[in-house]
Amino acid sequence: FTQVMKLYGLNKEMGSYIRKDIEHWIEAELNWELVPNEICEMELLPGVFIHNWGSGHAFGMMGLRIMLKKIGAVILASDALAVEANMGPPVRMPRVPYDTLGYARTAEQILKLKRLYNAKVWCGHDEKQFDCLIKSDAGYYE
Question: Which ranges of 51-137 does DSSP label H, i.e. alpha helix?
Answer without folding.
Answer: 100-117, 127-132
